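#dry-run=false #mode=assembly
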Amino acid sequence: MNVVFLNAGFLFAALAALLPLVIHLISRRRTKTVDFSSLRFLKELERKKVRRVRLRQVLLLVIRSLILLAVALALARPTLRGAAGASVHARTSAVIVLDTSASMSRKHNGRTVFDEAVRVCREIVSLMDEGDQAFLVDAATPRAPLLDEGTFARGVLLDALDGAGSGAGGTDYVSALEQARELLAGARNLNREIYVVGDLQRSGWRSGSAGVEPARGAEPDGPSSADVFLVQVGASAGNLGVSAVDVARRYGGPSGHFSVTSSIVNHGTREVSAPAKIYVDGEQVGQSGIRVPAGGTATVSFAAAVDDARWHAGHVELPEDALAIDDRRSFVIPAASPTEVLVVGADGREALDDAYYLARALDPAAGGERYRPVVVDASALAAQDRSRYALVVLADPGELGGEARRWLEGRAREGGACLAILGSRTDVRSWNTDLAPTLGAAAVRAPFERESGVRLAPAVGGHPLLEGLVVGDRLIDDVSVRRGFVVDAANSEVLLELPGIGPALAIARAESGANVATLATGLDRAESDLPKSGLLVPLVDRLASRLTGDWGGRRDFVVGEAIELSLPATPSGRLEFETPHGERVLADRRAVPRETASLRGSRDPGVYRLFESDEPIALAAVNVDPAESRLDPIGPSDLEEIPGGSGFRFVSPDAEISGQIMEARRGREIWRALIYLALGLVAIEMIVARPRAAWVPTGGTDAGTGDR
Amino acid sequence: MAEETFRRFLDPAVVSKLATMDLRARLIVEGFVAGLHRSPYKGFSVEFAEHRQYMPGDPLKHIDWKVYGKTDRFYIKEYEEETNLRAYVLLDASGSMGYGSDEISKIEYGRYLAAALVYLMLKQQDSVGLLVFDDRVREFVPPRSTPRQLHVLLRELDRARPASETDIGTVLHDLARRMRRRGLVILISDLLDDPAKVLPGLKHFRHMKHEVIVLHVLDPRETGFLFDGDATFRDMETGELMTTEALSIRSDYLREVEKWRATLARACAESRIDYVPIDTSTPYDRALFSYLEKRRRLG
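#status=ok
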C-alpha cells in the first residue's frame, strides 16, 4: 500500500508548517527589552515556571506547525492505495475495454451478455465529470475501432456504445489492455483508469503480447500507470459447441467421397446428448446422435459424396443453445483438379526406369485427369519452375549436382511435397549428408539385399491410405522386394514395411510443413516387384494425394484471420472474395512463393468464395475461434498468472457498479482524518495556549495600619 | 528655587487639605513640646539653634542684643524646641525606585509623599529629618523643627535620584543605632530587598522603642505584572536580563508578590509597625489622606 496525493500541487502548502517557527524566530529576535524594577520574583519563578513556559512555547510551536502541516496535507488529498484509483473530483482519463467477441452473444436472463456489458459501460460513463476523458476499445480480435481517439463528451461515448455490437471474433484482453495503456500514456489527466467489461473468459487472457505493465499497486505510481477494474458480466455457464471439422478424401471407392469428422466439445458440468447434423451445399446429408461427457469432447463422422469436379460447402450443426454462434461450423470440400507432378529421373536413364513406372502409375490413362506427371532428367531439375508442381518425385536420380540440390533446398523451404524413391542409384553418403536433411526425408542406415526377396507388408496397425489394399495383414498383391535400404523412419507415418528389415514406405513432416515420403526400394524389376504389381497405381495415387493434400493451402480459418488461398495457376482475371453476406471484396494477390489470393481480417463466420472474373475458383470456411466456446471466466486467484494482474480489481456486476467503483477509486482517502487531526490539534493548542486565570491579589492598594 | 520646589512638591490643594490633618504619634513621647505632642515629663529646655535677620513683626524678646552690640544689626534668635517627637523620613533612592510605568516613578511618588509628610509634621512643630539611601546612606538631614527645615528637606528631596542597588536592612540598622531618642520613622520604599534583611531592620527600630510607619510604594506593573507576550526584562539595579513569556507566568508572579506583601504585612503587624501598601496609580495625596484619616480614627 502506498500514499498518493490526488492534489499534489497543494503539497507546497506544507511549507506553511514552517511559518510558526519563522514567526517564533522573528519574534524572538524582536523581543523588546523592558526595564523592570527587580528580577527578584522572576528569578524565583525561573527555576520552575519559566522553564515550563519555554517547554510550553516549544509545544505550542510544534502543535501549530502540525496544524498547518495537517491542513496542507489534507488539501493535497492523500489516499492510501492498494490498487484503487482516482478521486471522483480529480480529473480522470479512462479506457473502457468492451468485449465484443463471439462469446458475448450468449443469451443470459432474457438478453445477451453484450447488452449487459453495454449497460455497465453506460453506468461507468455516468461517473464521468467535467474534464474527464474516456476511450472505448474493443477486446475482440479482429478489433473494431470503437472510440480510439477518446472524448471528453459523454454523448459521444454513449453514441459509440450504441453503435457497438457483439461480433464473431475471438477475445484478447491482454492486447486490448496494452492498447489501453498506450492510449492512457498520452492522456491529459493524471488519474488513469481502465475498465475491462466482458465475460472475462479464461481463454481471452492468454498472453497475446509482451510487455503489459503491472497495474498500480505493483509499481510506484507514474504517468503511465493506471488502475484496472475488471467487470464481469454474465455468469459462468456450460456450453456445447462444434470445435472442429475435418474433411478427408476417402480412398478405395469412387471419387468424390469424403469423410467429414467433427469434434463436439462440452464445457458444461453435465453430460449432454444432442443430435449433430451435416449439411452439404445447403442440404442435410446426415445426422448422428452424440453424447458428450462433461468437460469432454466427442467425435462424430459423416460420409459425403459430391461431384469433385467443383468446390462444395457445408456445415455441421448442433441444436441452438444460449451461445448459438458456436453451434455451427462450416467446412469446404475442394474440387479435384489435375495436379502437376515433377518426376526427376537419372541423367541418361533407361527407358523403363523408376521415373517411367512412376509416371505411368500417376497417369495410367495418360489423360492427365488427376495427375500430370512431367519427367525430367536430374540435370534439368534446376531449370524447372518450383511453384508449378504440387509434388516432386525423386525417382532414384542418383547423385545430384549443386544447382539441383539448391533447387530442392528452395522447394523444401517453400514447403513443397516430395516423394523420394531410393533405388540402386542412390548414393547413401550423399543422401544422408545432403538430400535427406534438406528434404526432411528418412535417412538410410544401410542397404540390404535378399535374393529370395522380402514380401512387402502393411505397417502394423494399418493406415487409412491402404484402405481396400489390405486383406488381413497382407497386401492384396504380393510384392517381393529384393534390394533396398534400411531407413530410419522415426517420427514418421509408416505405411509399408519389410518385415525383419524395416520401414519400406514412410511419410514424414518436414520443418517447413511439407509432406515427404520415402520409399526404401526402387521401382526397378531387379529390385522389387512393385513395377508389375497392381498395387502400384492405387498406392501411388493415394500417396500423391496424401502428399499434395495441403498444396492448395488451408481452407479453414478462424474469424479475424487473413484468408489465404493458393491458386492452381496464375490468375488472368480479377480476383474477388465474396463474404458470407454476399459482399464482394477485392482480393490481395501474391505470386511468391506461389500464387495466392488473400483477404485480411475476416469478420463474419461462414463460407467465403473466391471469384476470378466472376467465376468461383475456390472456397474457404471461416469459423468462430473454438476457444470462444469455453465460457468460464477468470477469478481473483487467476490474476497472478496474468501479466500485471496482481493489481487488478474485480467489480461485481450484481451490486451497484458506480458505488463500487467510487469506493475502489478513492482507495482510502485520509484527508478527513487529517482535518480531524488538525481540529484536535487546534483544541489542544487552545488549551495549552490559554493564559492562566488571572490571580487577583487579596490585598489592595489602600492604606493599612500596623495595629492588629 | 526654594519657592519653586515648594510649589512643585506641595500643591495648594494638597497643602490646604493637609492643613486639616495631623499625624499623631501613638507612642508616648518624651519631653514636652508645643504643638500636638505633649511630654508626660515636667519641665522643658530650649536650645538655641541659629540667628536670622530681624523682620518686622518678629517678637522683640527674641532679638539677640549681644549680636546687635557687635554688629549694630538686629538678629533674631531661633530656638530649637526640644520636641518630644523626632520624625525621620527615610526615602529609598535605590535604582528600583526609579521604575514607573505611568507618568510617575516610585521615587517621584515617594518624594511627594515625603514632602507632604514633612510639611505636615513641621506644621505640627515636630522635628523632621530626612535620610536618603540606596545600599548606604546618601544624604542625612538631622531632624529639626525650624521653619527653614522644610525648605532644606524639600531641597534634598528634589535632589534625590535613584541609583545603585538596595540594602535597606543595613541602612535601617545604621539609623536605628544613631537615633538616641525615641522617634517616628517613616520609611518610603518599594522594599525590593530580601525580607529577611528588611524586617530585622524595622524590628530594630521597634526594639529601640521607635514608632515605624512603612509606606510600601509599588508600581501597578509590579503589583499586576501587566505585560504580555515575550519580553526581555532588565533589572534596573543590576542590569541583569531575563526573557520570558509574561502572560504565562503572570499568575505565579502575582502569587509570589502577594505572598511577599503578606509576609511583610504580617511581620509589621506583629511588631506593631504600620504597613501601608501604596500603588503609584493612586494619587499620592489620596493615599496619604486615606492613611491619615484611618490612623486618626483608630486613635
